[in-house]
Structures are given as structure tokens and as C-alpha cells.
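User: Okay, second chain of the day. Same drill as before: sequence in, C-alpha cells out.
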Amino acid sequence: MKTFQLQKRLASDLLKSGKNRVKFNEEKLKEISEAITRNDIRDLIKKKAITVKKKKGVSRVRARKRHEQRKKGRRRGHGTWKGKKTARTPKKRAWINRIRPQRKLLKYLRDKGILTPQIYRKLYRLAKGGFFRSKSHLKIYIEKILSK
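Assistant: Same drill. C-alpha cells below.
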């Protein structure tokens, strides 16, 4: 059997594809074997004697399904985590989650009259400076101050 190397090479050049994707029509093999110029190959491509196989792509079906599951909150357990806790929750978000309850408590105690404006101001500044680890830490500190 003839290999048609020249024809394959010329066809792949003209079709801008790899040699493995060039496909010859079985009924027109005699015509193809006689084609030795680029022009001959061009004519055969027009007559559909020489065609190109479709490119194989990677299916996105599984990726889409996984994405949908992640949107629902699935597939996010400890096994998939990479990085520290601080990498998953930004430092700024952690700070916001810590400072807001502290400030809310301080305002509540000031409005109730439990804290004087001077003590409130001092505690507010301490909170802003990151002195208190949490709302409960702030409560303990206030109890100590008020018991004196």
C-alpha cells in the first residue's frame, strides 16, 4: 500500500493542521496518488477528497458540575484546604469580626451609664490598638476596672 507521505505533508501545510489529522477519501485514493503539486492538492481539498479530522478538546462537563457543587458549598472540607487560617480568612476580615462586637459593647455600656466618658474613651483606644483578643476579654477587663 502506498503511504502518500508527500500528499499528506502538502495537505497538512495547506490545511494548517498536523499530518495525523489529514484524512483521505477511500474512493479517491488513485486521484490523490497522482497529485504531486500544491495546486493538485488544493483542487482535491475543494472536491472534498482530502479533509481534516476535528480537533479533540477536553470536555468541561465535569468542571462545570464541580463548580456548581462548590457554589452550593460542597467540596470545601478540610481535605481541600491549602494554606493557614489567615490565608483563608484575610487579616482585615478577622480584625473587623473582632472589633465590631467590642465597639458595640462599649457603646452599649456608655449609653447605659455604666462607663464614664473618660473610661469609655480609654477602653475605645485600647480596643483600637488591638489590646483585646475578643469581646469576652474586653468584658473581663471592664469587670476588673469597675471592681477597683
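The two ends are 104 Å apart (CA to CA).

User: Thanks, on to the next one.
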